Amino acid sequence: MTKKGDKLADELAQIRKLIDEIELLRAKSIKAERLQETELLENGSRELRARERAIVNKIGEDIALRIKADGESLEVLAKKIKAKIEKMGRLPKRLDKISKVILYISDVLDF
């Protein structure tokens, strides 16, 4: 991953940890019937989840861009390999023709 990707991954881990902590506090506030505190915790949880989704989307876009770039370089490499294989395939065909000519000449000369 890139430095930017590492920062996003670290932020994502922190956000997920905070979400877990907020959910525990929210559950306690519900049991204690502290409605105002529960509402604040729910709002905080929603905001963290929105940021979590944004980070996941950004990481996904970065990965998709890298896959696309790697795919393009693989296409170039595949074309080079294909060209080399075709070139290598021509040599045995030439050798076959030469050997047939030699066999024909040897038959004609009766060797």
What would your notes on this structure say?
Helix content is 94%, strand content 0%. It has helices at 3-31, 35-109. It is mainly alpha-helical and 111 residues long. Helix 1 (3-31) packs antiparallel against helix 2 (35-109). It is rod-shaped.
Basic shape: rod-shaped
Average of the residue pLDDT scores: 86
Total strand count, please? 0
Strand content: under 5%
Largest sheet: none
Quaternary structure: single chain
Question: Would you kindly provide a brief summary of this structure?
Answer:
With about 110 residues, this protein is an all-alpha fold. The protein is about 95% helix and about 0% strand.
Key words describing this protein structure:
rod-shaped, 2 helices, 111 residues, 94% helix, mainly alpha
